[in-house]
Amino acid sequence: MNIREIQDLIKFVAKSGVTEVEIEQKDFKITIKACNGEPIERQIVVQAAAPVQQLAPAVVAPSPVAAPPATPATPATPAPAADDSKLITIKSPMIGTFYRAPGADKDPFVSVGQTINKGDTVCIIEAMKLFNEIESEISGKIVKVLVDDATPVEYDQPLFLVEP
After folding, report:
1. For residue 56, what are the contacts with CB-CB under 8 A and spacing of at least 6?
2. Nearest CA to 71 among 161, 147, 157, 125?
3. What distance in Å separates the CA atoms of residue 111 and residue 148, rounded to the nearest whole number?
4. H or E segment at 44?
5. pLDDT of 96-138, one tens digit each?
6. What are the pLDDT digits (tens) for 61-95?
7. Which region holds residue 19: left if phi is over 0, alpha if psi is between -120 and 50, else beta?
8. Is the whole model's pTM more than 0.85, yes or no?
9. Quick check: 46 and 10 in contact, CB under 8 A?
10. H-helix or E-strand containing 14?
11. CATH code that applies to domain 84-163
12. Burial of 122 (0-12, 13-18, 19+ CB in 10 A)
């Protein structure tokens, strides 16, 4: 079972209202449980044939205002003139809610025109009440932000365009 299948399973279970799901294959076991009757958000345990692993959040921060219902993503800023063939796309590694800043009263991690380095945090994606810092895998200049703040994003959805 790959990470995409696990993310899809978590999303499905959260929406269905089920309190516990357990899947076991010959070398893999995953259990997803709701805590105290709340929606599934706190406990995700993955067991492999060898050692037991527990998935932990990269960052836990105060919960921002809830995201509005899913709407089509629109560009957050106008795109400056650039040769699109040279641009690199930073994509979402997971399903969740996209946040440009660490908090409502904080400055965004990155802005159009800003130079970033490999390893710099570019945004946060909230998935199941866990706040995951998304780091850049490239260095360059942010040319365009492709997603509005506090909107849902899908796995592999483009988030930023970067000029290397």
Report:
1. none
2. 147
3. 12
4. strand 43-48
5. 999 999 988 999 999 999 999 999 999 999 998 899 999 999 9
6. 444 454 444 444 444 444 444 566 789 999 999 99
7. alpha
8. no
9. no
10. helix 3-16
11. 2.40.50.100
12. buried
DSSP code at position 56: -
Which 8-state DSSP code applies to residue 84?
G
Per-residue three-class SS string for 101-154: CCCCCCCCCCCCCCEECCCCEEEEEEECCEEEEEECCCCEEEEEECCCCCEEEC
CA-based diameter of the chain, in Å? 53
**What's the pLDDT band for 10 if we cut at 50, 70, 90?**
confident
Phi-psi region of 17 (alpha: psi -120 to 50; beta: other; left: phi over 0): left
Q: Where are the domains of the chain?
A: 3-54, 84-163
Q: Which of 56, 136, 133 is nearest to 91 (CA)?
A: 136
Give the residue among 83, 97, 81 at the shortest CA–CA distance from 132.
97
